[in-house]
Amino acid sequence: MRWWIILWICFITAAIASAEEVSVLPPREPITESTVLPSLISALRIEGPLYFCEEEVPLHNQEVRERLEKELLLTLWDRAQVILWIKRAGRFMPVIEKTLREQGLPDDLKYITVIESSLLATARSSKGATGYWQFIKGTGRRYGLTINRDKDERRNIFSSTKAASLYLKDLHEMFGSWSLASAAYNYGEGRLRKAMEVQKVNDYYQLYLPRETQRYLFKIVAAKMVLSDPGRYGFHVQEDDLYPPVEFDKVTVTCSTQTPLQLVAKAASTYYKQIRDLNPELRSQHLPKGEHTLAIPKGSADEFQARYTQLITEWEEESRIRLYTVKKGDNLSLIADRFDVSLDSLLRWNNVNSRGNIYPGKELIVYQ
Fold first, then answer.
1. Which of helix, strand or coil describes residue 152?
2. Mean pLDDT of the chain
């Protein structure tokens, strides 16, 4: 048989086998609305007017339009992050919107926290800005937030939003516009004022500022555009997709000494992690001496105080708290060895570090 006849037979056989294999594949699913995304080009066809806090964004200025298009593109490119924004907004935006409304502030300011922290309590910048609104320590304390070794209210959505509202209100009074107030929130009021004086400009869109601050307002506006109309950009979200607001009861506990947070969890008939999640401002496994208002799971407040009192009484009896008065020549390691406890425990019980300043006459808590 000629070689080309053999080759032809092999070709026909392979074709038939391939056709049979293809015929058993499942039919391709039809393309539905949820699988089709609007093109990025169509998303950039921004029709005005566009406002931020009732101040018009000057889209007629080509440079402004280009800067906004860039931030909108970068936002839409990270679709997973936008989905998380949308879902978290269901949990936190009601709190933020209510606080802004009570303070008489524009609703659009809520998008600042989306850009600052992605609505995460644990967000922290390289410069130490922390929490939902990314306060640095000095500014946070200036606006009433408790920030110390035991508690950081920058991580509390209620406290930090109230502080941010007061700060933004002051910035608006200083600069006379919400675009400049937002820039000052990012850059600092002193540095922004100096830049305005040097450049003789009082319009955010005409100021030459550090790159982060030049992009800042455009990021906020892009977040507003997407989150206020997610369907236009291909995010077809249903009510059930959103994370629901956290429900909780509030209780007040009084600690006569440093108290394990686990006792609070037990009194609330829950576990330690849930107490920490409900109170992200807490930074320690213990509550310091004093009075504390805490969130506990919804429905667990009725019998809480009775359970807590009983648990505290039992814990104090079991732990046999004693006070040791520091003597001349003592150090923390020697004291720990003397009472057969670990140095780490002694440091934690007394809220000091390994170089803690102890002196004759100082009283230390020691649990046996």
1. strand
2. 89
